[in-house]
Amino acid sequence: MPRTVHCVHLDKEADGLDFQLYPGELGKRIFDNISKEAWAEWQKKQTMLINEKKLNMMEPTDRKFLEEQMEAFLFEGKEPTIEGYVPPKKP
């Protein structure tokens, strides 16, 4: 049976992640408060950010940048700035 969390990003009860996908304290916060649906949204944005900004995940500064964007998106509802990408309007 899937575990349910109150997703702070979507502000609703939704299926939680099956396991902690991100390390450390932030990973625990994501596991406890972010749904699969919101995580999937972030994954798409993360891919766009990595490609657009040519981020190198071996570089600590690039990883830190991405982590800050992820935290702002998931917990504060801030859309990352991605050149040429317009987020769909919320109804």
Automatic annotation (TrEMBL):
Iron in keyword set: yes
GO biological process, one term: cellular response to oxidative stress
Domain of life from the UniProt record: Bacteria
InterPro entries membership: Fe_traffick_prot_YggX, Fe_traffick_prot_YggX_sf
Gene Ontology molecular function terms on file: iron ion binding
Record has Iron as a keyword: yes
Pfam families named in the record: Iron_traffic
One GO term describing the cellular component: cytosol
Assigned keywords, A-Z: Iron
SUPFAM superfamilies in UniProt: YggX-like
Family in the record: Belongs to the Fe(2+)-trafficking protein family.
HAMAP family: Fe_traffic_YggX (MF_00686)
Role this protein plays: Could be a mediator in iron transactions between iron acquisition and iron-requiring processes, such as synthesis and/or repair of Fe-S clusters in biosynthetic enzymes. Necessary to maintain high levels of aconitase under oxidative stress.
Annotated protein name in UniProt: Probable Fe(2+)-trafficking protein
